[in-house]
Give the backbone structure.
Amino acid sequence: MPNRAVVPITVEGLKTACSQCNLQELCLPYGMSEGDINQLDALVGARRKVKRHQHLYRAGDTFESIYAVRTGSFKTDVLLEDGREQVTGFQMSGEIIGLDGISTDAHSCNAVALEDSEVCVIPFANLEEISREIGSLQHQFHKVMSREIVRDHGVMMLLGSMRAEERLAAFLINMSQRFTARGFSAAEFHLRMTREEIGSYLGLKLETVSRAFSRFQENELITVQQKHIRIRDIDGLKALLSHLPNV
Amino acid sequence: MPNRAVVPITVEGLKTACSQCNLQELCLPYGMSEGDINQLDALVGARRKVKRHQHLYRAGDTFESIYAVRTGSFKTDVLLEDGREQVTGFQMSGEIIGLDGISTDAHSCNAVALEDSEVCVIPFANLEEISREIGSLQHQFHKVMSREIVRDHGVMMLLGSMRAEERLAAFLINMSQRFTARGFSAAEFHLRMTREEIGSYLGLKLETVSRAFSRFQENELITVQQKHIRIRDIDGLKALLSHLPNV
DNA sequence: CGGCTACTTGATCCACTTCAAAGTACGTGG
DNA sequence: CCACGTACTTTGAAGTGGATCAAGTAGCCG
């Protein structure tokens, strides 16, 4: 596990490294003083590489740090005793993982890399300490947590009130937006997760996900080749979301 | 709207008033100094009464404060353009409402009183300022937010992976635990929400909720009389959660 | 090339929804 | 205090979206 100390931190380096990070809004742009930069130095403890299919943490692990995804992507899931899995989210670069652990000082879900990935380890005690001194960091962190709560409400809406094709359309639109925000194509991207993982996230079986993809392709909304997706008619997809179930 | 200033704050009074509050863990027990108490004075801005079926806030409202439920209970929900409603949670005394607003400085859901209720208004700017000075308050607040995220994951599990009777059993067990934590009977309680609201929360139609209640009654797990519930076999309910769907 | 994992597609089934009709509690005004 | 209206709940019967079961296919990697 390469320790942070190994990689000398420079302001330039940070700006590059963290340019897509969810925490950037408070770390960098707001004219941090030299002293602030030194504190930031204390904030990010280390980087950690996680290979595909490896756990970043498991349910039950002691909580010490939250993580910012630098490269790659993750899924978080909850397991029931009988083996049922619920994927609670997919995380891409710049997104924060691990907030579930603050509540009880132990993680309540699993975080697994979908591809070879790297995270910034942010010891939570450090974050709390520094955010007591830098108000903008404190506020930004609160926004990150709140955003997670709002996102979760959206997933509840999806799981509780939408039909299969609406759920998949919402998922594709969301992925497209997140790729766009990272400077990738809005129309063409590569999904890192399996049909089963998408299904688990959307509360559907993998066959249903597959059939919905096929239906979208028939209707010329998208082109599917395994995990490679090309969106041909984003408005058509969005239209699926604004219709009543039986109209 | 009675302002806080109207009700003189005393340490005794606070201990009584906040004895069931989620924020109590940091406000009260940790031997706050006289100075801390004065700061607390600045934290809780006012109390606000909300009548049954009235909104505490609506989606789109500017975010300024979070709320601690003093008496009564609330639901929070998200509405789709076509009228579909997803209830995202039910809140009882001591629980915090409004965390969704931090993210964008505007609320993203509606909060509606299920009965005549009263909340403590906590201006969020105050909370951030004071929590920069009192570390235990800061940490407690982070725990409250994290707990909300963990709870949301549980609801996703419920909506995405459980069948109707499992969902209702999980709901009843959860309600029972929360009533117990408030000093009420674990076995007998009055639901403040309608079958339709329970159904919306659980991703089911009201008829399905009603049928599941009836089935539980047939199986002597509970007694139902409209909104009055008596749990006769809590272990039987719990057993419903640990079984495979087809076993 | 062989073996594996992931994906697609068809046929059948069933849990939950939808539609419909009563029944019950409750508040209000006469 | 009763009559009536309203909102909520229960229950039945029929319909359907997605699950399940079952092949078969495509891509990947050692």
Q: What stands out?
A: Chain B is about 40% helix and 20% strand. Residues 194-196, 206-207, 210-211, 213-214, 226-227, 246 of chain B lie near DNA strand D (CB under 10 Å from a C1'). Residues 1-16, 26-31 of chain B have pLDDT under 50 and may be disordered. The two ends of chain B are 55 Å apart (CA to CA).
